[in-house]
Amino acid sequence: MKNILVTGGAGFIGSAFVRHMVTTYPEYNIITFDKLTYAGNLDNLLPVKNASNHTFVQGDIADRETVHSTFEEYSVDTVVNFAAESHVDRSILDPNAFIMTDVVGVYALLEEARQLGIGRFLQVSTDEVYGDIEDGHYSLETDHFLPNSPYAASKAGGELMVRSYHITYGMDTVLTRGSNTYGPYQYPEKLIPFFITEAVDDRPLPVYGDGKQMRDWLHVEDHARGIDLVLHEGKSGEAYNVAGEDLRHNIDVVHKMLDLLEKPQSLIKYVRDREGHDRRYAMDAVKLRELGWERKHTFETGLQETIRWYLDNAWWWRKIKSGEFLEYYKRQYADRIAAAEDK
Ligand code: NAD
Ligand code: DAU
């Protein structure tokens, strides 16, 4: 392992992984390959801008020619694929890009990697492939898939392509399934950065349904270290859950954020629920812990530090929220918030 292509490395978790790898392994060359969609952001890579072991290439994982030439030009021997459309609400508004990147794009990467005999291929996946998990159960890697949103189904499709390349062609693959991740540089469409940045401006916080859905929160640096460990130590053909093992009701997370920000709870607006909304995700990370992983961040301190980061880095998110985000906000929230205020 020497020349590692990190696809989707200009996004939230991908850029945390790139920052981690560039500093932890000066002997590796890290090549970030990213289409720079609305979610890709070169500002996320500013901390490694001058690193001699990092290069950036703009490209689409579904574009086989560019993937092929990048593999050759940089003598890529390892692929870590973060590239994806990642937001459930957007997948409900329009699934097309999800199929094109999360399924077709994964196939394109796999096929080019197979033809060039590239070594290890790590696919970054999600706990959402397991579907809605009943109280008391914690998903294991051997549990079946029951994805419910177009996003979750496209990620499951990508995973199954990876599995097939391992079984059929003997490709050296590993999979990680992460839980809800939070931390610096997360695009402010996801619950935590969206609500922090809206609350700073005293804007309404649209809680879907009754707010009693449960998510399992994982700090992005713990997620990145988990992926690093699976890349180096994971058994070929296997999947590994990367879980915070810290489940919270959404509404409790929102109350806590408002308290920490010293903003009034009256900013909360209960709005029409997400269609097909999964109530609970929960995974058991025992298999990853057996490889030696443990999380370093508790949710309590991680959330405080994350809020501090957004307060100190308004330059980063204000730029984003004045662009494409405004159009998305209108489509996703205008009716919901208007209806909530009419009640
Ligand atoms: P993100 O939306 O912040 O970043 C995705 C990145 O992929 C962006 O930089 C984007 O430009 C790039 N991209 C999208 N389509 C591309 C294409 N066709 N070719 C090349 N690049 C492309 O996403 P994230 O939250 O960092 O998630 C990264 C990965 O982790 C995804 O695969 C996601 O499914 C998975 N995941 C995310 C979470 C979470 O809570 N955010 C949890 C578990 C797993
Ligand atoms: O579980 C892992 C998944 O976590 C990843 O695979 C996805 O890429 C990532 O986006 C995330 O999916 P969620 O749908 O769980 O995350 P999101 O931040 O969109 O929502 C978290 C919870 O908060 C969910 O129950 C929906 C709710 N929510 C979200 C938003 C954006 C609201 O109530 N209001 C909102 O405005």
Short account of what is shown:
This protein is an alpha/beta fold and about 350 residues long. The protein is built from twelve helices and twelve strands. It folds into two domains: about 5-180 and about 215-240, Rossmann fold, CATH 3.40.50.720; about 190-215 and about 245-275 and about 300-340, UDP-galactose 4-epimerase, domain 1 (Alpha-Beta Complex).
**Rg (CA only):** 19 Å
Please state roughly what percent of the residues sit in beta strands, choosing from under 5%, 5-15%, 15-25%, 25-35%, 35-45% or over 45%. 15-25%
State the separation between the terminal residues, measured CA to CA: 59 Å
What number of structural domains do the residues give? 2
Order of helices and strands: EHEEHEHHEHEEHEEHEEHEHHHH
Bound compounds: nicotinamide-adenine-dinucleotide, 2'deoxy-thymidine-5'-diphospho-alpha-D-glucose
Relative helix content? 40-55%
Low-confidence stretches: none
**What's the main sheet like?**
7 strands, parallel
Indicate the CATH topology of the largest domain: Rossmann fold
Number of helices: 12
- Silhouette: globular
- Count every beta strand, where a strand is a DSSP E run of 2 or more residues: 12
CATH superfamily of the largest domain: NAD(P)-binding Rossmann-like Domain
Strand order of the largest sheet: 3-2-1-4-5-6-10
CATH class of the largest domain: Alpha Beta
Average of pLDDT: 97
Please identify the structural class as seen in this structure: alpha/beta
Q: Quickly give the CATH architecture of the largest domain.
A: 3-Layer(aba) Sandwich
